[in-house]
Design brief:
By secondary structure, this protein is α+β, with helices and mostly antiparallel strands. The chain has seven helices and nine strands, in the order H-E-E-H-E-E-E-E-H-H-E-H-E-H-E-H. A five-stranded mixed β-sheet has the order 2-1-7-8-9. Strands 3-4-6-5 form a four-stranded antiparallel β-sheet. A hairpin with a 2-residue loop joins strand 3 and strand 4. Keywords: Hydrolase, Metal-binding, Zinc.
Length: 190
Amino acid sequence: MQKQQQWDTTWLLFARMMADRHSKCASKSVACVIVKDEKPISIGINGTPSQHVNCNEIYLKQAGVLYKASIDEVKDTESVLHNGRMFYRCTNQEEHHEWSKLNEIHAEINALGKLAADSTSARHATAYVTHSPCHACSLALIASKIDRVVYSTGYEYGDGLTLMRQSGIEVIHRPLTEEYFLERIFDKDL
């Protein structure tokens, strides 16, 4: 059991690193790493399809506040200069979520899509996800015959956990705390 917990933490750390380095979403950086027989077989990052405008080209989130790039100058609105571009505070803080539902592909769907494109099965694999899967991603994971889902952070729209458990998928919440990272920097056993 201890060995499995170490591998779970390792793959979650890898997923978090992939999300932090490669996600183009301004609100949440999410990654899904699918592992089978102790080997990663697919990696998915949340974002728009190739050749589409990325979320972080339109939106910026700082200190929990959502901003939007605008061609037109918006007067009497809080603004932030970021990488040479002006972003203006959104009056509707849920605006990004609505945009994301229409334009972005979730990390789990991207990872499963890559497997499907290569005719590779996810049967009996484990999905390591930085955030708990939403309802639609949970359905896709169930359909793929995944055995386990391990996630580190709860997602406010992640309502698929019960659904996956009812379908026989082992669901594990393994938080990655900042203290864990600080301890591990000096740990020679890593």
